[in-house]
């Protein structure tokens, strides 16, 4: 059912698994700071140790081999490589660590997909304004060029930024992710803008300096739920759904894949709301200037993180406040027939992935697509025999097969989130997404395969054997 060279992967992110937050010259990141300040994270937990993959990488490699993955998605910790975020000072121990990870993977015939930025900005750069500051784009570009130069001979798939939506909104509007800023209605748009500028700059650098030799692909990972109008016959619900999509998927995919600029629906909704609330000044949604590298066309493939689906109707639930939600004016409803797994936001809707893939094919001119994240969480009484999650993976992979075969979507790979139970951001260790259980109570941080991991391995093997 899947092409021979289909990528079967699993993903992780540096801060969620590595630990070693101060090991061998690593500089602090905004997540170190955020966790060490009280009150931001469940149970005052932190990624100080996490799965200790910094020291236990070989254990992770065993898991990767046992699953039979063809690809492994990891992220680099920017401040492990460049402790103050700039190329003025390189931490060779950090470089050695990632060199070993990459070389070990390749020796086992596993292709690495590397994310340059998965939420953990060097604290030194946050101190200079972080993603709100326009100068961040060229700092990110220098870091990226250093990585292409140092590791790019062995990496064919690069993700610049993971989920700019989450960084912008949860980090700068809601304040529930690092850096914990609550500046509703303004900062998130600025951050999203600088992330797009930074991403585009890096793509152009790769394209002009490295592509010919290294022959890799560069994109950004965009998270999106699948959404449908609550009532398919109701015009208000339909337009609310269009706004919802414009403010999530469209915010980043439209500039990169369609026009080089934000969706018109998004800008007009923001500007109308500014007017209504008497907000003076220029649009809260910045504009791309003519003299910066073009945004359009800066992705060699579509990297999609899909977790769940929503029904949509008008209404923000936050009245006349200046905030993204009121700009968007679209409320989310969960269909009561969708089971909830673990965390409250994760309704299990495998079929939403197929619909979203079809939408991406139709809207963004049939790009090559990698599903870079998709997963199922457990909370509370722990089940090593996690049958529900096994069923979830089986159902979801079947939907991907249908997208490929029946809808003709150009899907190139699927990455389960996550290889290991890990530090689930504001939820700490209370939410488990792993194909492997990690015993965080024990110093050895023993990895044990879940039933879902065994089942995923079987599915991969079947497809490798062409059955
Ligand atoms: C991904 O984000 C991340 O890339 C990954 O690091 C993470 O471990 C994984 O998901 C699992 O969460 O709490 O109601 O405000 C997925 C997109 C966006 C989904 C934020 C959850 C929080 C909703 N996430 N959303 S809420």
In short:
It contains 15 helices and 15 strands. It is α/β, with parallel strands linked by helices and 467 residues long.
- Please bin the fraction of helical residues: 40-55%
Please indicate the percent range of residues in DSSP E strands (runs of 2 or more): 5-15%
Strand order of the largest sheet: 1-2-3-4-5-7-10-12
Shape: globular
CATH level-four homologous superfamily name: Glycosidases
Summarize the main sheet. Answer: 8 strands, parallel, barrel
Radius of gyration: 21 Å
Structural commentary:
This protein has a single domain, classed as Glycosidases (TIM Barrel, Alpha-Beta Barrel), CATH 3.20.20.80. A hairpin with an 8-residue loop joins strand 14 and strand 15. The mean pLDDT is 97. By secondary structure, the protein is α/β, with parallel strands linked by helices. It contains 15 helices and 15 strands. The strands form four sheets. It has an eight-stranded parallel β-barrel, surrounded by five helices. A three-stranded mixed β-sheet has the order 6-8-9. Helix 14 packs parallel to helix 15. Helix content is 41%, strand content 15%. The structure holds ligand GBH. The site of ligand GBH has 13 residues, from helix 8.
């Amino acid at each position: 059912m899947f092409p021979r060279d289909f990528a079967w992967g699993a993903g992780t992110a540096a801060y969620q698994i590595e630990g070693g937050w101060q090991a061998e010259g690593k500089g602090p990141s905004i997540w170190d700071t955020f966790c060490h300040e009280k009150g931001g994270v469940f149970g005052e937990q932190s990624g100080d140790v996490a799965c200790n993959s910094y020291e236990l990488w070989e254990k992770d490699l065993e898991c990767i081999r046992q699953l039979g993955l063809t690809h492994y998605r990891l992220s680099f910790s920017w401040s492990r490589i460049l402790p103050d975020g700039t190329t003025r000072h390189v931490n060779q121990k950090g470089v050695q660590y990632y060199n070993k990870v990459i070389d070990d993977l390749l020796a086992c015939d596993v292709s690495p997909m590397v994310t340059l930025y998965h939420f953990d900005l060097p604290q030194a750069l946050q101190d200079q304004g972080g993603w709100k500051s326009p100068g961040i784009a060229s700092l990110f570009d220098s870091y990226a060029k250093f990585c292409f130069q140092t590791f790019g001979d062995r990496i064919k798939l690069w993700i610049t930024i993971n989920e700019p939506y989450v960084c912008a909104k949860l980090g700068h509007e809601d304040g529930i992710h690092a850096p914990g800023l609550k500046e509703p209605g303004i900062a998130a748009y600025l951050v999203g803008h600088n992330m797009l500028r930074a991403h585009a700059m890096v793509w152009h650098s790769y394209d002009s300096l490295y592509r010919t030799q290294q022959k890799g692909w560069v994109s950004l990972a965009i998270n999106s739920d699948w959404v449908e109008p609550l009532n398919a016959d109701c015009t208000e619900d339909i337009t609310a759904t269009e706004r919802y999509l414009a403010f999530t998927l469209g915010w980043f995919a439209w500039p990169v894949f369609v026009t080089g600029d934000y969706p018109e629906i998004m800008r007009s909704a923001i500007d109308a709301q500014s007017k209504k609330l008497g907000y003076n000044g220029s649009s809260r949604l910045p504009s791309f200037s003519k003299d910066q590298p073009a945004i359009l066309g800066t992705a060699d493939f579509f990297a999609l993180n899909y977790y769940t689906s929503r029904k949509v109707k008008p209404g923000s639930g936050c009245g006349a406040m200046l905030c993204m939600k009121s700009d968007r004016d679209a409320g989310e409803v969960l269909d009561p027939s969708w089971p909830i797994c673990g965390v409250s936001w994760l309704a299990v809707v495998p079929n939403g992935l197929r619909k979203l893939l079809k939408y991406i094919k139709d809207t963004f001119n049939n790009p090559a697509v990698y599903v870079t994240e998709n997963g199922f969480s457990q909370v509370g009484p722990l089940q090593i025999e996690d049958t529900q999650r096994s069923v979830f993976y089986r159902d979801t992979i079947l939907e991907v097969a249908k997208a490929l075969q029946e809808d003709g979507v150009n899907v190139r790979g699927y990455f389960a989130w996550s290889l290991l139970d890990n530090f689930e951001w504001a939820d700490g260790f209370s939410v488990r997404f792993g194909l492997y259980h990690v015993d965080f109570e024990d110093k050895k941080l023993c990895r044990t395969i879940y039933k879902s991991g065994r089942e995923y391995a079987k599915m991969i093997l079947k497809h490798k054997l062409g059955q």
